[in-house]
């Protein structure tokens, strides 16, 4: 499997359930701002609502940073609405829930489980130019943390805004960064 890091997102066209409406979404909607795209296996499941609810709890913080969040599964936008109407956890979601019943978007991001027609738990952070800067893929039984994703977006934005600096492990805003150079080799 080749890495998607530093590649541009591929064109797509889909319908999302967003704030009580069905809305069109394309790759163009992800341009001009930072975006997070979270793939998950299916609506009406077990780990998925815990992740999506956690992400909903962080949504306002992402928005404050100029980041739009999108969730994607191979369900339809109609199924997203039905889940939203049926689940108190999913009712909290304010971000677009994209339906990908053909699997085209899921395949574009390399997270399709072909034999099941479902997505792996894939998380992608995309810069305003449409370039993937973070790619994390989990097996179906391993849930993700919105807090850790939030920290990764903060680091990606920092690195983008501070040429020549990198963020060490567990970096958070205000902490010291590194400026890679010959002087640092073997001293960390």
Automatic annotation (TrEMBL):
Keywords: Antioxidant, Cytoplasm, Disulfide bond, Oxidoreductase, Peroxidase, Redox-active center
Record Gene3D superfamilies: Glutaredoxin (3.40.30.10)
Pfam families the record matches: 1-cysPrx_C, AhpC-TSA
Annotated signal peptide: none
Origin: domain of life: Bacteria
Membrane-spanning ranges: none
E.C. number: 1.11.1.26
GO molecular function: thioredoxin-dependent peroxiredoxin activity
Domain annotation Thioredoxin: ranges: 3-158
Top EC class of this enzyme: oxidoreductase
Catalyzed reaction equations: a hydroperoxide + NADH + H(+) = an alcohol + NAD(+) + H2O
Compartment(s) of residence: Cytoplasm
Main location: cytoplasm
PANTHER family: ALKYL HYDROPEROXIDE REDUCTASE C (PTHR10681:SF121), THIOREDOXIN PEROXIDASE (PTHR10681)
Subunit description: Homodimer; disulfide-linked, upon oxidation. 5 homodimers assemble to form a ring-like decamer.
Function of the protein: Thiol-specific peroxidase that catalyzes the reduction of hydrogen peroxide and organic hydroperoxides to water and alcohols, respectively. Plays a role in cell protection against oxidative stress by detoxifying peroxides.
Family: Belongs to the peroxiredoxin family. AhpC/Prx1 subfamily.
Record's protein name: Alkyl hydroperoxide reductase C
Protein's organism: Alishewanella maricola
Top-level taxonomy: Bacteria, Pseudomonadati, Pseudomonadota, Gammaproteobacteria, Alteromonadales
